[in-house]
User: Fold these one by one.
Assistant:
Number 1:
Amino acid sequence: MAEEKVKEESFVNKGVSFFWKYLLGGIIPTAILTFILLIIGANVSTFIISEPFGRFMTEDHPTLSTGLSYMGSIGVWVVILIIYLILRNRREYLKKILNRFNKKTAICLLVGLVIGVGLNLICAFAAMLNKDISLYFNDFNVLSCIFLLISVFVQASSEELLCRGFMYRRIETFYNQPIVPIIANSAFFAVLHGLNPGVTIVSLMNIFLTGILFSCLYYYTDSISLCFTGHTGWNFCQSIILGLPNSGVVVPYSFMKLDAANARNSLFYNCAFGVEGTVFSVIILGLACVVVIVLGRKGIIRKAR
C-alpha cells in the first residue's frame, strides 16, 4: 500500500512538474506576450499606414490598395526591433535579423523564394490540371511588381519575425528539445488564421504544416532570411501572380485573375480558401516537411551562419 501511494504521488508530481514547465513555464506566457506584440504592432501600423494612406485603399487604386493592405503589418517590425534594441540580451537576435548582406544571405533569400513559389505553383498547377480553376491575364508592369513584392515581403516577414523569430527564440530558451518551440509557434501561427474567411480544419492543418516547414528550415539553417522569402514567395505567387485567395482573402490587384464563377471545390482547390484549404496541399506541405527534416538530419542542410 505504501509503495503504491508513493508511486501515485510521484505520478502526480511529474504531472504537475510537466504542467508548470511545459505550459506555464514558457509556452503560454510566450503565446500571450506574442499576441500582445501583435496587437500593439497592428495599432502602430494603423498610425503608420492606415491613417495617412487610407484614402488610397479603395477600388479606384487597386495596386496601391493591395500594396498598402500588405504593408499593414509593418508595425510588428517596428515593435519587435524596438524591444530587441532595448533588451541587451536579445541584441544577438537583432544582429541575426539585420545581418549584413553577403553571398550566404543572398543564397538564403533566393532559396527561400524558390521554395515558396515552387510549392505554391505545384498546388496551383494541380488545381488547373484537374480543371478546378482557370486563369486569365489581367495586367502587369515592372513598377507594380517591385512595389507589391516589397509589400508582400513586409507582411510575410513580419509574421515570420513574430512566430519564427520572437516566439521560437523565446520558447527555445526554456526547453532543450527543439520540437517544443517548433510545434508551439506553428500552432500559434495556425490559430492566428482561425478567423480568416472560409477557414476549415483542413486549411488550419495546412497553415500549421507551413509553420512546421519554416520552423524546421529555421532550425537547420539558423537563417530567418530564408523563412522571410519562403513565406513571401508563397504569398506573392498565390495572390499577386495567380490572383488566387491568400488564406481566404482575395486582393484587388493581381497579374492574373481567377474565373471565380467556374471554380469548383475538389481535393486540389477550395473556392473559399484557395489551394491552402485542400487535402492535396496538406500532402505537399507534409512531404516538404519530411524532406527538410531528412536533409537536416543528414547534414545536407547546413547552418547558414
Number 2:
Amino acid sequence: MTKIGTVTFHGAQNFGSVLQAYALQEFIKGLYDKFGKECDYRVINYRTEYQKSFYSIYKSVKNPKNIIKNAVAYRHSTALKIKNQKFEDFLTNYINLTDEASKANELEKFGSDFDYYISGSDQIWNVRALDFEDAYYLNFVENGKKISYAVSMGPLDIDWNKYGKEKYKALIDDYDCISVREIGTADKVEELTGKAPQINVDPTFLLTKAQWKNIESDANYNEGKYILLYCLEPSVEQLSMAKSISKKLGLPILVTRYNNKNDMINGFVKKYDSGPLDFLSYIDNAALVLSSSFHGTAFSMIYNKPFYVFNGMKDSRISSILKIAGIEDRSIERMEDIDRVSLEKIDFSAVNKIIDDEREISKNYLKNALEI
C-alpha cells in the first residue's frame, strides 16, 4: 500500500483552506481506486500554537488594537464558538489526519513515514504569510519523494533576498515534481530556480458540483433570496458597492464571517456560526455571490452561480482562473460597474468544459508524480 503524507493549511479556520485540503485528499484517493490500487493518505497534522492563536476568538490584549476586536468578538461569542467547533468537527470527520505536531522539530517523526510527500495547495509557499513555516517546503523529509500540487506564493511580489533566496531555491530544487496554482507563482518559481513548473487548478476544482453537494449542510436563508458576500478584508468602497448592489436587486446581504473595521456596523444578515459545510450550502443556495476571495470565486464557478468578484483582474490568483474560463467580465472594480450587475444566469457550458479539461490535466500530473 502506498503511503502519502500532505502538508497544507488544513488547520486554518478559513473555508477555502480546509475545503481544498479535503478536495485533494478525496481526488487522490479516487485516483488510486480508479486504477485498482490502495493508498493510505494522511494530512500531516501540523498546527502551531501561533496558528491556533491566530484563529482564536479572542486575541492577545498586548496589542491595543485587539481590544476593539475582542469587544466585537464578545458580541458574537456564542456563534463564533459554534463555528470553531464546526471546523474542528470537519477535521475530525472529513480529513485523514496524523497525530498532531505543534513545533517544527516534532515533524521529524514523520520524516520517513511516507512514500510520497505532497506540499498541498493554498498559499503554503507564501513566505509573507503570518502562519508560514519552512515545513511547507518539506524541509523535514528524510526519505520519500517530494511533490507539490497547485501551491501558491500569494498575489504579491516577494523580495527573495530578504527571505533567503538560496535557501528557498535549494528547497524547491529538492522536489521531484512541481505544480503551482497560478501564473504569478510559476513566475516566482522560475525566478528562483530557472525552471518553469506546471500550472494546475486549485484542488477545489478537482471535485464535481455533485461531490460538493453531497457533503454540504442544509443551511439556507430566505429561500435563497439573498446575496452571499464573502470577502476576507473588504475595503470601504467594496462594502459600499455591495450595499448598492443589494439595493438595486432588492436582496439582503448575508455574511458568514466578521471581516474588519470597515465592516463593524451594517445591516447584513450575520451567520457567524457557519462551518465549512454551511459555506458550501450558502454558496449553492444564493441568488448571487459577491466576493474578493479566490475560493469564493472558485466555488461560485463550481456551483455555476451568478457571481461578481471585486478587483478580480488585479489579483493574479483570481485573474488567472477568470482568464482560463473566459469570464473576465465578472470582475468589478468601481461603482460605475454596478450598472452591469444582474441576476442573469451565466452560460457555464464553456466554463464547465474547461474545468473538466483542467481536471484531466491534474489527474495526469498526479498519476505521473505518484507513479500510479
